[in-house]
């Protein structure tokens, strides 16, 4: 297998693992929402958000950095130095995990008091031990990637998610049957993350022993004449590259953690404690789960172009860079928008189908509608990293999160929970606009150019059609059982949007036949049957 083929295969493995992990993570919230009350739901969501935020701070960017440092040293036959980097990374991962675990366990009561949900202490503490393992796992994944072995990281990620979800749901169900309170059911569900971490660590240890045996059998000769690299130098290299990546990776999770931390305090003076809890419960367990769906496909397709963007930038090929940046942005918008539209306009049916009550459909719909800007933010962040502008992306994220805080305090008294959601969307918009402004200084790309009017018309038509189908579909509630009616209604909305969307893109020449071959294969297959609309239109003229 060539180096290029190996790289592509490795990228696909990691992308597939990330997609599976994300889908499982979203799916876990649906049955838990049925099991738990408001306090239990918020406790579980609080523990998860705090944990994921701290985990991102501890590990984001570092596996990629370790991968780069290890691969470079193996390429130069400096295997002893590569092993020293690996050992330093493991030491850092273990120390970081131990410190964060102790801090999270110790400060859980203070954080629970801050977010006005004292029941969340048990869930936070139940999940804290997972942080002992995951920084170390992240370092091991980085090392394997540096050795051009993507399967260990992908397999461990999938195994971890499967064990975590099964254990969380199993423990929660058992505790519920035994009569435990929401506080302990949420803690049991959170502990599933610890069992998932143990499973992932065992997978990585298996691969590590397998690789060590293979290295011993290959009788690698290690050059020992060079002096050992000081740990201080290794850590300086790691942090120099990793710190900006942390900020870009943490954005969405940080925003959700902000909502969980201050949401009840912002809403309570105006709506009362119980109503504030209900709103944050719906936001954290329902809306955030549904809003996690649209970015999955869009990010996977657009980020497949990022290695090409990095290569074009490194070569100084401005024309190719312009074309690929434009393509990445278009793909992210084209693939994200129909899913955003379908889930937003069918929010009442989707909410009624998936969750325990029909309350909060507007919250689900509003947060989901804003995810189109989450998609553009994530893609532009990645492109900035690809063109060696990580510090710019970091500054923009800091500005965006500061804006999120400010807008939350300003809008919540007026609009309640919808003000908090609007602040989230504005955060993503701010970061996207700042990113695009910086990118345009490097490459003068156009996202849609003069096609914006046609795209806006497409969105408006689909929103109107989808809304009409949703209204008609909800009439079935009077004829069929609720969930059957909601299933049919949401399915009809999705079908209408997914059939009309590519037809309108082609008919309004937002996508042209000439550029179709530039798109990834899944998008080409979806659009190709509709291309006769352009040919028919041309023939009529």
What features would you highlight for this structure?
22 helices; 541 residues; disordered N terminus; mainly alpha
Helix count equals 22
Q: What pattern of helices and strands is seen along the backbone?
A: HHHHHHHHHHHHHHHHHHHHHH
Q: Strand-residue fraction? A: under 5%
Global shape: globular
Task: Please state the structural category.
Answer: mainly alpha
Tell me about the largest β-sheet. none
What is the arithmetic mean of pLDDT?
85
Q: Could you give the count of β-strands?
A: 0
Low-confidence stretches: 1-8, 537-541
User: What is the helix fraction of residues, given as a range?
Assistant: over 70%
Radius of gyration: 24 Å
Measured distance between first and last alpha carbons: 50 Å
Descriptive notes:
With 541 residues, the chain is mainly alpha-helical. The relative contact order is 0.09. Helix 11 runs parallel beside helix 16. It has 22 helices and no strands. The chain is globular.
Quick summary:
With 541 residues, the chain is mostly helical. Helices cover 84% and strands 0% of the residues. The chain is globular and about 75 Å long.
